[in-house]
Amino acid sequence: MIEVRDLKVRYGARVVADVPELDVGEGECVAIVGESGSGKSTTLLSLLGLTQDAEISGHVRVCGVDVLTASPRRLREIRGARAALVMQSPQAALSPATRLGVLMRRALKLHGVGTAPSAGGTPDEIMDRAVEAVMLDREILRRYPHEISGGQAQRFAIALAIALGAEVILADEPTSALDVTVQAEVVAVLRGLREERGLALLLVSHDLALVSTIADRVLVMKDGAVVESGPAARVLAEPSHPYTRELLEALP
Ligand SMILES: Nc1ncnc2c1ncn2[C@@H]1O[C@H](COP(=O)(O)OP(=O)(O)OP(=O)(O)O)[C@@H](O)[C@H]1O
């Protein structure tokens, strides 16, 4: 689903992300961890061609599309629909005067989902199933963005991705704005989607406790470079790089 080789992202002369290898297969979760400014978000955004003013080299394939050479039209086909980005505070991106159901219906229409009679049902059926998949009541579709909590907004953002038929979710600190119990709900939703729908998940987080509960593999970034990578259980239990040990020691 995601295949990265020799990715380098530069702003001017400075390499802010250097990722030799990163693969996320169907039903897998890979986490990128590291302190603020280490290049995690830049790496994530570059996978969808969303870094502005950056010079990018290497090989990036997402849902079968060669991102660095694809036409803008081809990129638009995967962005949002097949590969969805879930950010830290989705509420800010939701139009305040639009009910969530109206917003979701517009997104489906924009991407042509639910228009063909055969393709997964009517827009209403697709929306109901997506909301159910993230354990929200369908009544939420009648609400405005300010009428929902941070955890509900995050789950709605994931539901939107599901409704649009996402195969890959790229999540940037999806739970950092949430309190601990609500974080657990969002993680449970993501874990369920991987297991039940084979969704591939690339997660950026500075929260190693969260990562240990969901990721199969971990990449540790520092100053733009990957200093350690491997199975999450191994990296978190027996870190081989001093920086990973530092991150682990900083855990509460
Ligand atoms: N548009 C830009 N122009 C120039 N430099 C940038 C730009 N965007 C990011 N950077 C720089 O790239 C480096 C990596 O930033 P990035 O946001 O990827 O780090 P991060 O690990 O995700 O940090 P955080 O956890 O704080 O989001 C930082 O030094 C940042 O200042």
TrEMBL record:
PROSITE patterns in the cross-refs: ABC_TRANSPORTER_1, ABC_TRANSPORTER_2
Pfam families associated with the record: ABC_tran (PF00005)
Family: Belongs to the ABC transporter superfamily.
Cell location: Cell membrane
Membrane topology: Peripheral membrane protein
Primary location group: membrane
GO CC annotation terms, alphabetical: plasma membrane
SMART domains tied to this protein: AAA
Keywords from the UniProt entry: ATP-binding, Cell membrane, Membrane, Nucleotide-binding, Transport
InterPro entries: AAA+_ATPase (IPR003593), ABC_Ni/Peptide_Import (IPR050388), ABC_transporter-like_ATP-bd (IPR003439), ABC_transporter-like_CS (IPR017871), P-loop_NTPase (IPR027417)
GO-annotated molecular function: ATP binding; ATP hydrolysis activity
Gene3D superfamilies, alphabetized: P-loop containing nucleotide triphosphate hydrolases (3.40.50.300)
Top-rank lineage group of the source organism: Bacteria
Name of the protein in its database record: ATP-binding cassette domain-containing protein
